[in-house]
Amino acid sequence: MTTREPARSREQRKQDTLARLAKDHDAWVATASPDGEPTLMPLSFLWDRGTLVMCTRHTNPTARNITPRGKVALTVGPTRDVVHI
């Protein structure tokens, strides 16, 4: 039988997330067009004093999808310890 580590506390998860944002550089960004067409794109990011900074060309589908609604799903980290923002 596999032994699993106990779940992290909420505070530990927050600390781990902030550490990941400070050291990682790439994220998966998921958006959808107004008609519901999904787009998943890897983008680099910078975590700067509590602000997540990303950029891409304004003609990129990801940028076009974000502009009308301002909604995006973002994930960083490996599959077994992913952070979903």
Please tell me about this protein's structure.
- The chain is 27% helix and 33% strand.
- The chain has 85 residues and is an alpha+beta fold.
- The protein has two helices and five strands, in the order αβββαββ.
- A hairpin with a 2-residue loop joins strand 2 and strand 3.
- It is globular.
- The mean pLDDT is 90.
> Which structural class do the helices and strands define?
alpha+beta
Q: What's the SSE pattern?
A: HEEEHEE
Shape from CA axes?
globular
Radius of gyration: 15 Å
Percentage of residues in DSSP E strands: 25-35%
Count every beta strand, where a strand is a DSSP E run of 2 or more residues: 5
Strand order of the largest sheet: 3-2-1-4-5
Mean pLDDT: 90
Biggest β-sheet: count, sense, barrel? 5 strands, antiparallel
Helix content class: 25-40%
From the N-terminal CA to the C-terminal CA, the straight-line distance is 33 Å
Question: With helices defined by DSSP (H or I, 4 residues minimum), what is the helix count?
Answer: 2
Taking pLDDT < 50 over at least 5 consecutive residues as the criterion, the unreliable ranges are none
